[in-house]
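#help-structures

NK: newbie question. if I give both the sequence and a SMILES, will the prediction place the ligand too? trying with flavin mononucleotide
OV: yes, paste both and it writes out the complex. here, I ran yours:
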Amino acid sequence: MSTFGTLYRVTTYGESHCASVGAIIDGCPPGLELSAEDIQIQLSRRRPGQSNLTTPRNEKDLVQLQSGLEHGVTLGTPIALLVKNEDQRPHDYSETDLYPRPSHADYTYLEKYGVKASSGGGRSSARETIGRVAAGAIAEKYLKQAFGIEIVAFVSSVGKIHLPNELSPPSLTRSDTNEDNDDAEDSVSPEFRQLLKTITREEVDHHPTRCPHPATAEKMTQRIIRAKDASDSIGGTVTCVIRNVPAGLGEPVFDKFEAALAHAMLSIPATKAFEVGSGFRGTEVPGSKHNDPFVVRPDGTLGTVTNWSGGIQGGITNGEDIYFRIGFKSPATISQPQETARYDGTPGTLAARGRHDPCVVPRAVPIVEAMAALVVMDQLLQQDARKTAASRLPPIKTLPPTMVMPKKEVLLESNKA
Ligand SMILES: Cc1cc2nc3c(=O)[nH]c(=O)nc-3n(C[C@H](O)[C@H](O)[C@H](O)COP(=O)(O)O)c2cc1C
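OV: that's the protein plus ligand as structure tokens.
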């Protein structure tokens, strides 16, 4: 369906070539100061035509707020917003009247619905993500103001070009063929943890690839241009960190925090993979090295020394930085001729026309941030509702001490000992 979330509910609408795309957001707390500019910043980071590395489709993607706020303050009622589609060129897609694009959604949409949008990717187009990005920007404003939560995503690879090892999330070590080697030193490096703690959107946007390491970013640019010049495309990964999330978010057992994140991320077009924390690398490292030992933080809560868990244990946030990585495939629409078959089964050659992204990851960054914000917001509202309901009960004095968390003072005291 087109709705995401339980208490912060976002419904997106729109096809690539219809009059407008947008969203209705239900569950935004009242009293949040909000302007179109708060939303526009992220929409402009997502929009096409930002550089020679993205599709030249020229859309300004200016948001129009329709309801849910007055005098720049949210009313707690549904927020409706829209963005007009202005630069459609349906004729670019005339071949795709005959051919389903290989590895795009044309064939499956037609099989499913029995009818499809007459041009463009219809609902499968990345234009649909405008509603998500706008809804995410609103959630982010609340999360930042109420909890100091920050979300930053960045491009971590394009094709085979990766950030240097020390700045990368843990990854499978294909080059290490020694099956008896349990060494895990190359994994969650101090440099990577530091990057997660400090990286800003300004740093990410410094380079059109949205890779925060200038030398790697330059190589990525060349790789994307090589794909573009060959009328081809290339994939990549986006890594995201969520900072300052309180411990206790996540709804076991089916809506565990990482399950909700995976759901959110794998609903973004062109995604093929999702890893949280140590991800697949965690399968190679023995428990003795993979476990995150506990330590008392200066504020009297428990933290962890390492963070292989990616800030989530038992499907519940533990207060550490949450980090995860998403794999995006090489976009399907390429103008290089491909042997394939028409809808009617006739073999033929498709060289797709139209304006397309040679690589989606630079534009996917704000979409990943938005989906992360939707997950945090939704889970936070659910946990707040639970905590508020529990706080209305008289204190329980009969439980054995092992059933409740010791007070912060106790933790700080035992840390001194
Ligand atoms: C920001 C962004 C831009 C995209 N641009 C294109 C594009 O120009 N051409 C294309 O074929 N696919 C593009 N895609 C991917 C398609 O929307 C997607 O591959 C298609 O809907 C099929 O869905 P699937 O790949 O998730 O199976 C883009 C995806 C994102 C996130």
